[in-house]
Design a protein that fits this description.
Length: about 500
């Protein structure tokens, strides 16, 4: 399968550039590439190696700039609106540019008509449904990164503790973390009885995200759940079909979730604040359960050498529009050489040499092949041997592009590249919601969205982290939360999303 994939990619790559007799037919050019990650020590070494590779193919060079999140937020908005040619630009959660907003305001170059000639292999990586989902006002402005493009949610657990306890973890198959309450209490009771010195430890260490750890639905306002819709095949919210827009905070499920979180904290199942508590992950008989997002293969000792880590996947895997907007690359609207920039992105997304270079650096400098063909960073002169001071090491490096063609060590991807194989399998199995590609225009209710988002920020964190003193306090605060949302236009937001969804569905 690995050889077949490599052959397919090679054919795609050959076809991509078949129309050019040689790089000499192309006028020399240079362009920039901005990536949202901390700048590495050996960036220039990697940049030089990349240019040495692409120059004979494209007669072009790329100048890479890594930017911290803080710098990106401070500078990139101005750069995109300056009218300057800034070449290739990342978007998403690490590269802090919002794909929808920047596309709508004309910051990115339209790619729809360029793929067939300049990047057919990249286009072939995704289904037509995904490309439809990437369209903003009828045009594709960005290339999503091929990686874990669905919510692959797993429960990572201390396998040594579970084995010593003698329970069958498979008996606790689940769709979300809310359904594991009985397991958490059972293991907590056993752990505290057998290792009383650990009783002060929580049994669960995880980020109390409503979504996607605990609920699966479409959300049209990112991290506030003022307007959501059920997904056929999951239906986490009782009484609603998948085309009805709902204020999640007004549902019985939200209240019950908040009550569960308060119960977990009161009973020592979880902490209400995990700040500076990383050491709790390391103890052999400390916390037992952890959230996993995007894992398709589990390392043997992900958090600590003191215990063996395994995972069990949730029994539903789904995706939605935000998954494709969360990491990717676009070409700036004022790029002087958009076709050549897209040809370069074809290499980024289809050429294993480029994909590997952008994650692990230069062979012989940052990594080498062992006798059995595995990748190692530990050799004489390696600039990646010191784990705390690596010259160039970015795993996943999601803002860069296609992860599935990267050559990586077995310690990361497992035997026979099982991580990548599972990733592609899970991507293909994702439940797709009814409104993949719908983008909500907030303009008609911009004031209501701003007001209600502020209220969500005021209440949500304490409620979902279990910081209330009692169930009665939870119920009182949720009631107060709902009243404030109602007074500030939550119903108007729901109605406007419903109107736009209905119009979008009718136009399909």
């Amino acid at each position: 399968m690995k050889k077949l994939l490599a052959l397919v990619m090679a054919i795609m790559l050959a076809l991509s550039f078949a129309s050019f007799a040689s790089a000499e037919d192309l006028e020399y050019c240079e362009f920039d590439w901005y990536i949202g990650s901390n700048p590495p020590t050996d960036l220039q070494i990697v940049n030089d190696a990349l240019n040495e590779y692409i120059l004979p193919i494209l007669n072009a060079k790329v100048n890479i700039t890594y930017m911290t999140s803080a710098d990106w937020v401070e500078k990139m908005g101005t750069m995109l609106t300056s009218g300057d040619d800034i070449g290739i630009v990342g978007f998403g959660s690490q590269s802090k540019s919002d794909y929808v907003i920047e596309s709508q305001r004309g910051a990115f170059y339209p790619l729809t008509d360029l793929f067939a000639e300049y990047a057919p292999g990249t286009y072939a990586l995704f289904s037509e449904a995904v490309w439809e989902g990437m369209k903003i006002n009828g045009e594709i402005y960005g290339i999503p990164s091929l990686k874990d493009n669905g919510y692959f949610i797993s429960c990572i657990y201390n396998a040594d503790m579970i084995e010593e306890m003698g329970i069958n973890i498979e008996d606790y198959q689940h769709s979300n973390f809310r359904e594991l309450e009985d397991l958490f209490y059972e293991v907590k009771e056993w752990r505290d009885e057998n290792y009383p010195e650990m009783a002060e430890y929580p049994i669960v260490m995880y980020n109390n995200l409503i979504y996607p750890y605990n609920f699966a639905f479409e959300t049209f306002l990112n991290d506030s759940y003022l307007a959501v819709a059920n997904i056929d095949g999951i239906m986490d919210l009782a009484g609603y079909d998948s085309n009805t827009i709902v204020n999640f905070y007004d549902t019985p499920e939200f209240l019950e979730f908040c009550l569960q979180k308060q119960r977990f904290v009161a009973d020592g199942i979880a902490l209400y604040d995990e700040t500076d508590k990383a050491e709790l992950r390391k103890a052999a008989n400390g916390a037992c359960f952890f959230t996993g997002w995007g894992y398709t293969n589990m390392q043997e000792h992900i958090y600590s050498e003191a215990w063996t880590s395994k995972m069990m996947m949730a029994d539903v895997i789904w995706t939605e529009t935000n998954n494709y907007f969360s990491a990717g690359t676009a070409i700036s609207a004022n790029c002087k050489n958009p076709e050549r920039a897209l040809m370069f992105l074809e290499l980024v997304n289809t050429d294993p040499f480029v994909a590997t270079l952008m994650r692990f650096g230069v062979e012989g400098i940052h990594w080498m092949k062992t006798e059995d063909g595995d990748m190692t960073f530990d050799f004489e002169g390696s600039r990646n041997a010191d784990v705390g001071n690596r010259g160039y090491y970015y795993w996943y490096n999601a803002p860069v592009g296609n992860l599935t063609i990267v050559n990586a060590p077995k310690s990361l991807v497992g035997e026979d590249n099982i991580m990548m194989k599972n990733m592609m399998k899970y991507n293909a199995e994702c439940i797709v919601p009814a409104h993949l590609g719908f983008v909500f225009d907030t303009a008609p209710v911009v004031n209501e969205v701003a007001a209600c988002t502020s209220i969500v920020l005021e209440y949500q964190e304490d409620l979902v982290n279990g910081r209330c003193a009692s169930p009665e306090e939870v119920e009182a605060i949720v009631a107060e939360f709902r009243e404030k949302l109602a007074a500030n236009g939550a119903a108007e937001i729901v109605a406007e999303v419903q109107r736009q969804v209905d119009a979008w569905m009718a136009a399909k």
